[in-house]
UniProtKB/TrEMBL annotation:
It is a multi-pass membrane protein. The chain crosses the membrane at residues 6-25, 77-101, 128-145, 157-176, 196-217, 469-494. This is Membrane-bound transcription factor site-2 protease. Zinc metalloprotease that mediates intramembrane proteolysis of proteins such as ATF6, ATF6B, SREBF1/SREBP1 and SREBF2/SREBP2. Catalyzes the second step in the proteolytic activation of the sterol regulatory element-binding proteins (SREBPs) SREBF1/SREBP1 and SREBF2/SREBP2: cleaves SREBPs within the first transmembrane segment, thereby releasing the N-terminal segment with a portion of the transmembrane segment attached. Mature N-terminal SREBP fragments shuttle to the nucleus and activate gene transcription. Its EC number is 3.4.24.85. Keywords: Hydrolase, Membrane, Protease, Transmembrane, Transmembrane helix. The keyword Hydrolase applies. Residues 131-477 form the Peptidase M50 domain. The gene is LOC101849162.
Length: 495
């Protein structure tokens, strides 16, 4: 809650300062105000409440060239977009209606179709950059679709712009209203549906990249052998000089081999289920290594004694309290042993797992509570890292990747960045398809619905007032449907 409040304060503080600065410069002395207004006019920038906009006609020639490239192909391309958008409108209305009905009936909904993305709430602050970049890319390509289709249908493009609304970036294209109203409803549909169609193409392209990514990265990264550390939470149990380092490979947790992130999750889960994991030590060695006060009293003066450490009654950075029993004595014994020396011995789960020829051996277990585990993490070329704690603390303290760089200077985070960006594009671009085709005010679905009704009803319903009445009913229904879904989604998010 503290982090969310801080983010809200920073965002509101930024926009308040920017708006007040804009008002101050516009109302200051004539020379300063004239220069500031001239700067805004030349740069295309404008400031309003919680919004920063940029608008320019500099891309008009680019849109003109793209719109005139292979006219027949573009006509077929954008006609496919019309078919897809109309089908998507029906599917979207059906899904959103079914979601409302199930929510009202209190039927279980396994997957929430419409989920608002709120930075700091259900969006990690560390991934805000991915979210904003994805919105910007999807918005630009969406509006480029409208612009290219408009040029193809002989509609003038006045300009192109970008905006930032609070934390949500986007794009827009300014089309000539007179030209747009003069073309036929079918040509209008090609223009209105181009944005949604391009959102689908973007999502499919990102999915293809995600599937083919291992092949693309094969010359630079190896997979299926180990995993590589891409991040370590600071001040965690596995950070510090002796902890895990970014770029190191992780191959095992105890005797559980790790070749992928799925193996890592399985090994951590297995360590939580396995209550007893010990190590085989000869009883004579246990007594020799034991540094507890009772053992030191019984030790002869001819032996080279360890420093007295009573780790069974206090904490120690090098020693750990172990418990064991022998064949001669079934009572539980405790010994304070050097953790690394003890864990270097073979692992055991039962006393019968330990067999040393001509010598009595015991399986020593860490004397810890039921939730704590002693794990050996094999990483890089260094000695295994000893982790004492809950396995979930280990799981959430480390970020890993399946892609291990073949050369040291290759960035370890590049595959993660590409994967995350593709997943965001698939999710957000797909969501834009579902939202934009809904016949709702201020969305593409509103204009798609009008053009489609004009195309279908004009031959049979010549009265424009009746057609407008039908259009108003459909858009009103779509708007109410979307608002109800947003309310339910917000309620679910903050419930």
């Amino acid at each position: 809650m503290m982090v969310q409040t801080t983010w809200i304060a920073l965002v509101l503080g930024f926009w308040s300062s920017l708006y007040l600065l804009d008002v101050f410069l516009k109302q200051s002395k004539k020379a300063i105000a004239r220069r500031y207004l001239s700067f805004l006019d030349k740069s295309g920038l404008s400031v309003s409440v919680c919004q920063l906009r940029w608008y320019s006609p500099i891309f008009n020639r680019v849109f003109l060239r793209l719109g005139q490239w292979r006219p027949r192909f573009l006509r077929t391309w954008f006609t496919l977009g019309v078919i897809f958008s109309l089908l998507s409108m029906l599917v979207s209305i059906f899904i959103l209606s079914l979601l409302v009905i199930n929510t009202v009936r209190q039927s279980p909904v396994e997957h929430q179709v419409l989920t608002p993305v709120m930075p700091g709430v259900n969006l990690p602050t560390s991934q805000i950059s991915y979210y904003m970049l994805t919105l910007l890319v999807c918005g630009i390509l969406h509006e480029m679709g409208h612009a290219i289709a408009a040029v193809r249908e002989q509609v003038r493009v006045n300009g192109f712009g970008l905006f930032l609304l609070l934390l949500y970036p986007g794009a827009f294209v300014d089309l000539s209203t007179e030209h747009l109203q003069a073309v036929s409803p079918l040509r209008q549909l090609r223009i209105y549906c181009a944005g949604v169609w391009h959102n689908l193409v973007i999502a499919v392209a990102a999915a293809v990249v995600l599937v083919l990514l291992p092949g693309f990265l094969m010359p630079f990264y190896s997979t299926g052998i180990s995993v590589v550390v891409t991040g370590v939470v600071s001040n965690s149990a596995v950070s510090g000089p002796r902890g895990l380092k970014v770029g190191e490979t992780v191959t095992r947790i105890n005797d559980c081999h790790i070749k992928s992130i799925a193996d890592w999750s399985s090994c951590v889960s297995a360590s939580m289920r396995e209550k007893w994991n010990g190590h085989c030590l000869p009883v004579a060695l246990i007594k020799e290594l034991d540094t507890s006060p009772r053992s030191m009293i019984n030790r002869s003066q001819n032996q080279n004694p360890w420093e007295v450490i009573d780790c069974c009654n206090s904490t120690s950075p090098t020693h750990l309290c172990f418990m064991y029993h022998t064949k001669k004595n079934a009572d539980t014994n405790y010994a304070c042993l050097p953790a690394r020396t003890a864990t270097d011995r073979p692992m055991c789960r039962l006393q019968s797992d330990c067999y040393v020829p001509k010598m009595e051996a015991a399986c020593v277990y860490p004397a810890v509570d039921n939730e704590t585990r002693l794990l050996r993490i094999f990483h890089g070329q260094r000695p295994p890292l000893l982790f004492l704690g809950h396995p979930l603390d280990l799981y959430y303290s480390v970020s890993l990747s399946n892609y291990v760089p073949k050369i040291s200077f290759i960035p370890v985070n590049l595959p993660f960045v590409i994967e995350t960006f593709c997943k965001y594009i698939i999710s957000l671009s797909g969501a834009l398809v579902i939202l934009n085709v809904v016949p709702c005010y201020a969305l593409d679905g509103q204009y798609i619905c009008r053009a489609f009704l004009e195309l279908v009803l004009r031959p049979t319903v010549p009265d424009p007032e009746i057609r407008n009445f039908v259009y108003s009913l459909v858009v009103l229904f779509g708007t109410i449907l979307l608002i109800i879904n947003v309310i339910f989604a917000m309620w679910t998010l903050f419930l």
